[in-house]
Each structure stands twice: as structure tokens, then as C-alpha cells.
Amino acid sequence: MAAAAGASSYRDRTSEFVSISKTWRKIEGNASNLPRSLNHYFGDAMPDRSEFNRNASKIGLRIHQTSQKIDRLSNLTRRSSIFDDRSRENEELTALIKNDITALNIALSDLQTLQNMEITAGNYSGDKIFHLTAICDDLKSRLMHATKQFQDVLTTRTKNIKAHENRKQMFSTVASRETLNHPPSSLTEPPPWLSSTGTSETNPPSSASIGNGVQVGRQLRYDLAYDK
């Protein structure tokens, strides 16, 4: 069942698009009523014939290019790691994709406005209206799919960033514990009298012993003088 569903979602629509293309060639555009944002998005030098056709084709191409950027961002997100941080490249590409999606939404809205203006003016037959509506719906569906894919990539990227931060914190905690368990040895040797061995031999002379020595010296001089 899954294989059948996958096959049906990728059915050959060549004949349908050929029919739509033939319809586009017959459509007379109205350049004087073209929304300004379309002129700004695609340039001021817009031809008078088949405006809807040309604008829809450019929007479709731009959606395809944006989808390629989203694929690149997805690959960068998967390859990023704590030792291979590509945050700057990710941020730059993310900003470009956001700008593209915003511009595409505006252009697609203006394309829909142009279509409604032509339908209201009675320039299209029932078949033409059907084909043009199918084109707009297809572009909207593609843009929605690209937007959803972009949101999924951003969600994955956010999870990866949190995971990287947790790993950094874990490594930092382990390093701190190693430092506490194995402190660096001191390079300064303690004084001999602070050593645990040879306490009786290495104790510094006390003030009492120094005083006794002075008294002994005085007594020795007295004895020598008396003998003389």
C-alpha cells in the first residue's frame, strides 16, 4: 500500500502541463494593471504578453531554487557537531531562505491578484480559469511544502544545538571532577621541620634553648676568669 501511495504521488503530469503551457500562450496579459510588487520582484522590464505565464514560471523557478537552499541547510545541520561548528554558515543560509520565502509569498499573492483582476474583466473562458487556478494552487502547494521542510530543518537544528550544549557542559563537568580528584602537585618543598619524619632532629631551635646557651656561655667565661 505504501509503495502504491508513493507511486501515485509522483504520477506523470507531462500532458497536463503541456495543456497548461498551451493555454498560457493564448492568454493576453494586462501590463497596466500589474501589481507593483511583481514589477519590483521580477524587474521593471515586463513584457506585455502572457504576464501570468511569465510570472508564474519565475515564481516556480524561485521556489525550486529555495528548495535547493533548504536541502543545503539540512545537510549542514546533519554534519554539524561539537567539533565541527558551522553556525555562521547555517545562520547566513537561514537568513537567505527566510527572505526568499517572504518574497515568494508576496509574489504569489500578487499573482493571485492579477488572476482575479483578469477573471473579473472577463478575459478568460471557463477552461482558462480552471488551468490558471490549477497553476496557482500548484505553486501554493510547492511553497507550503518548502516552508514546512524549512521549519523541520530549523527544529532539527535547534535540537542539535541543545545537544551540543549539553555535551559541552558534560565535558566541562568531567574535567572539573578530574581536577578535584587529581590536584597538581606543589613545586615548593616544605621546610624540614614540617616533615613528618625526623621531627626530633629537624625541629627549629626554640627560644628557651637559645637562652640556655647564653647562660652557659657566661658561666664558661666566669670559670675561666676564676682559674686565672
UniProtKB/TrEMBL annotation:
Gene3D superfamilies: 1.20.58.70. InterPro entries: SNARE (IPR010989). GO terms for cellular component: membrane. It comes from the Eukaryota. SUPFAM superfamilies: t-snare proteins. Keywords: Protein transport, Transport. Residues 176-212 have a biased composition (Polar residues). Coiled coil: none annotated. GO terms for biological process: protein transport; vesicle-mediated transport. Residues 176-214 are annotated as: Disordered. This is Syntaxin-31-like. It comes from Dorcoceras hygrometricum.
